[in-house]
Amino acid sequence: MRVGLITTTVNIPTVLSLYRKLGPDVEFFVAGDLNTPVAAKEFCDALPNCRFILPQEQERWKSSALIGFKSDSRRNFALLEAIEWGAEIIVSVDDDMLASEFFFGEIADNFDVPHSGLCAGVPGQWFDAGKFTIPPAAQRGLPVHYGFANAFEPVVDAEIGVVQGIILGVPDTDSLTAITNEPRIYSVTDVLRNGFVVRPDALTVFNSQLTAFRRELAPAFAQFYKWQGRNTDIFASLIMRRIMKERGLYTYFGPPMGYHARKSRPLFNDLKSEMFGLEHIVSLSDQINSHDLIDAPVTDQVRYLYRLLYQLVWFPKENHAAAMAWLDDIESVL
């Protein structure tokens, strides 16, 4: 199985030395940005099987200018390079996420062996995986003031489409939780430590900080920070799960673990960047889940979902144009 790790950075991504030790055969794809230091490329060039993609090299893609620079969305171009290389499993990590010892092996096991065990969620109701850390820390991007149905049932031979690992340290929680509670996660419940899946017809989200997914789902992973702020991976996760629903693929929460060593930053800026998602996530979810998907390849299904979003008054039209161009790019290498 060919595994590609993708990230973007405005730092020297020294954490990749750890990932290289843990996965000698994994190919790394690092998308540089306009404000990424030159030393980042020098560092990556010194690592085996690590490709640093300069901003000017990313401009060969049709969507590059539309998506814009100086944002986490440059990760899209690391993904394109990984798909062109032939990655069968894509692992997306942030440059401040420290991986645990059996990181790549645990990811491979989740895709190689169908899950038999706990299955969470209720059809059409929201599920919060953040309830299972110690202390609980709500998963970033979920709607507020919603009841969350954290029911469990058994499942046998559930095929996994996406793996979100366990995030220790600074949790991937919403800014309101971060501001009021300042949670730090050093442990998780046995439920999360043992891993579980969420049924395809429940409503939940995942992030791009410590996540792996199948190649066939890659068209749904595109992110557009310019218009969506801190919701970019959250919106993408809803689109990907809509695609997965048609294929009976489950989202897995559990090992591997990573320690998020995020530095302190202005949390009120995070809150401002999340407001767009808090206002519109339910509308987005309703729009893509209330229509039947066309019988077509994944890329065309994602196009269809973006056309549905285009009909919403609040959805940025420039975002739609960038998404269409990016889908053309990934279709050219799939």
Distance between the termini: 16 Å
The best one-word shape is: globular
Order of helices and strands: EHEHEHHHEEHEEEEHEHEEHHEHHH
Q: What structural class should be given to the helix and strand makeup?
A: alpha/beta
The low-pLDDT segments are: none
Q: How many runs of DSSP E, i.e. beta strands?
A: 13
Please give the largest β-sheet: 11 strands, mixed
**Distinct helical segment count:** 13
- Beta strand %: 15-25%
Helix content: 25-40%
- The top-level CATH class is Alpha Beta
**What is the radius of gyration?**
18 Å
| Average pLDDT figure | 96
Number of domains: 1
> Could you please say which CATH topology applies here?
Spore Coat Polysaccharide Biosynthesis Protein SpsA, Chain A
CATH architecture: Alpha-Beta Complex
